[in-house]
Amino acid sequence: MIALESFHINDSSALISNIKDKKALLQFAGPMYRFPLTKDQLEVDLSDENRTLFKIIDVENQNTIGHAQIFLKDETFLLGRILIWDENNRGKGYGKKVMQELLKYGFSHLNRELAELNVYDWNTGAIECYKKVGFVIDPAVKNEAKIDDETWVSINMKIHRDTFQL
Questions:
Q1: How far apart are CA 19 and CA 82, in angstroms?
Q2: pLDDT at 87
Q3: How far apart are CA 107 and CA 128, in angstroms?
Q4: Angle of helix 94-109 relative to helix 124-133, nearest 10 degrees?
Q5: For strand 136-147 and strand 51-58, is the pairing parallel, antiparallel, or unpaired?
Q6: Cα–Cα distance between 50 and 70 in angstroms, integer?
Q7: Beta-bridge mates of residue 53
Q8: Would you state the pLDDT for residue 93?
Q9: pLDDT lower than 70: segments of the chain
């Protein structure tokens, strides 16, 4: 169904073209990027030795259908900046498979027992997807981001290596 391949700077135009506005960018990347997304911002991530960037490939037709990243932290690794471009491809199991592939990569390549992610509390579809993979909400970790006149609350979810199953 999908495969993760290394993201290179020459892949950036596809990602950039799929971030339509500042709300889409905040949902995708959290508050670290500034709209409009640029190659320079992506080059900073690519140069960070603690960050691994992927393009998500639909194996059947060899098309790039999305983007994802893993960030190595002191105690965990963080899954983030996950985006399936085409909304018509959402709800078809791609998200679950992407999460499984990211966790498989992280637990086999990174010396960490715990993976985590952050998701906005209104993004119920993503939260349910992450729960299906085995993530649980950590009620002790919440953050807020402001956009226009709105405040978005980010919740944290975690999964231990021992509970991850493909």
A1: 12
A2: 79
A3: 22
A4: 50
A5: unpaired
A6: 8
A7: 69
A8: 86
A9: 166
Residue tagged 């349910």 (tokens): 128
Each residue's pLDDT tens digit, 96-126: 999 999 999 999 999 999 999 999 999 999 9
What pLDDT score was predicted for residue 88? 79
Q: Residue 128: what residue type?
A: E
**CA gap 2, 95 in Å, rounded:** 10
Per-residue tokens: 83:
């985006």
d(CA 52, CA 141): 24
- The DSSP string of 76-140 is -EEEEEEEES-GGGTTSSHHHHHHHHHHHHHHHHS--SEEEEEEETT-HHHHHHHHHHT-EEEEE
Q: What amino acid occupies position 136? A: V
Q: Give the pair of three-digit tokens for residue 125.
A: 């579809």
Residue 145 phi/psi, 5-degree rounding, is -130, 140
**Torsion sign, CA atoms 39, 41, 42, 44:** positive
Residue position matching structure tokens 């709300």: 23
Q: What is the pLDDT of residue 91?
A: 74
- CA nearest to 76, candidates 166, 157, 165: 157
